[in-house]
Every structure is written in C-alpha cells, then in structure tokens.
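Work Package 4 report. The design task specified in the project plan requires that, given a folded chain encoded as structure tokens, an amino acid be chosen for each position. We show below one input record used in the internal validation round.
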C-alpha cells in the first residue's frame, strides 16, 4: 500500500481500495485475536478503577 500511495498518490482510487482492504484485514485479525484470548480466559474484564481526588492545599492561620 505504501508503494502504491507513493506512486499514485494518497487519493488515488487504487490506493484507497488497498487501504480499505488492509483496514478490513486488520479488523478481522484483531477480532480473531480477542476471541481466542477470551476463549482461553486471558481477556479480563475492565477492573474497577479507583480515582483520587486532589484538592488544593488550604492554608489555615489562627
């Protein structure tokens, strides 16, 4: 795809078609990879996230 884009340009129909095909292949690979990890129990759900609230330091004078 890179050589095609360099030769014909980024907006050329052939380059765009190649880019879309590559996007689809990457999506299929990622979906398959996640599915396999999920089946093996390696993919964990999002953990509970704890947040810390930072407040500005107040000066107290007596």
């Amino acid at each position: 795809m890179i050589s095609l884009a360099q030769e014909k340009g980024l907006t050329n129909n052939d380059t765009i078609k190649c880019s879309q095909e590559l996007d689809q292949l990457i999506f299929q690979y990622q979906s398959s990879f996640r599915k396999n990890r999920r089946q093996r129990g390696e993919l964990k759900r999002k953990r509970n996230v704890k947040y810390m609230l930072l407040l500005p330091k107040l000066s107290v004078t007596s």
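The chain has two helices and no strands. Validation will be extended to a larger panel in the next phase.
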